[in-house]
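Summary for the lay section of the report: proteins are chains of building blocks that fold into shapes. Here we show the chain for Choline esterase and then a coded description of the shape we predicted for it.
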Amino acid sequence: MKTYNVFPEPIGSYTVGRAQMDLEYTASDHSKRELTAFVYYPSDSNEGKTTSTYMFPEVYKMFNERPLVTALKDVYSIDIKTWCYDDLALSGKEKRYPVLFYVCGGGGSPEWGTVLCSDLASTGYVVVSIGHLNSTMYKRKDGRLYNISKDFSDVIISFSEDPKMQELAGKMVMHPDEETAIEMCHNVLTLPILSRLTEFSELQAEDVRYVADYLYKLDAGELNSIFKDRLELGIGMGIVGHSYGGPTTAMVCRDDDRFVCGIGLDSGAFGLVDSDLKKPFLLLFSEPNYNMNAVIGSNNSRETYYFSVNRVAHLDYCDIVFTCVNEDVRGQRDAMEMRNIVTGYTKNFFDHYILHKALSLESLKYDGVNLINKTSIQP
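The coded shape description reads as follows.
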């Protein structure tokens, strides 16, 4: 298989800055949430600095010490060059910049979306990727390390091994019609095993809302940062999540009106069986994943796009498409082609629904990527 020693150069004209912030707060369940967040943003120059380290070696070591499942041990390398630079000045080309959030998959790391976040930042967005307590692994700026908790790992494994879930998975068909997909999705989402999994998603969504509050304080100048009076928050924010991060994305859209649209990348719909997101939502996925998220569009009173992508694997939607060293977890598409698909749909969607550009998702053409459904419930 082809290997890479450098990520693709970002698509936009801005140099990409990256800053790390440590945050903590008390969540609604009274737990203390100690988080970190990487912020990717547009800059005018690399200021002569060397590129940011992709992932901290200590975090990579934690992943291999306790992978979520055995099959994910030693599947990727961190010996790859990024195109972002730590702690640059924010670009002066625009007075304010729109804001997006990225949510990595469960058991992953906030750096796993570096390619997508860098692409978006290079075109003028500020993009925030959070390290979520218990469900992701990360190193805080203060040096402390956080691995996925045994509780979270056990819940994920229990879900995948649940006999009722396995029975339903065996009945999932490729390219089901809408009615069949909705019925299957409802059957999956009402499994008792999902209640604890949903609780972790809800805490991740609470993390996002807290960090959004923090950005408002940065913009207002309540805290010292380069973002004072520089964030375009009045037009609303967007959010995109991969895998387990997808339900978090949808929950944030449902519960926080500051977020005006969202994207799920090969994700599910845990905790969303009866939810009207009331926001435009895009799902980019590999079959038979439609069976896992069909209720989102069936309940959403705004447009929901379902794009099916063939010849790809689940981890192809994040940086592992470039960092992979185990071809068994990769799909058949070229890594650059997959990057162009994910970045293309994501940027087009946010440009349309946040920046109000006259763009059409249906106008994007990639081989083997098909719009299989577009739903909108009229009020």
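Put simply, here is one thing we learned. DSSP finds ten helices and twelve strands in the chain.
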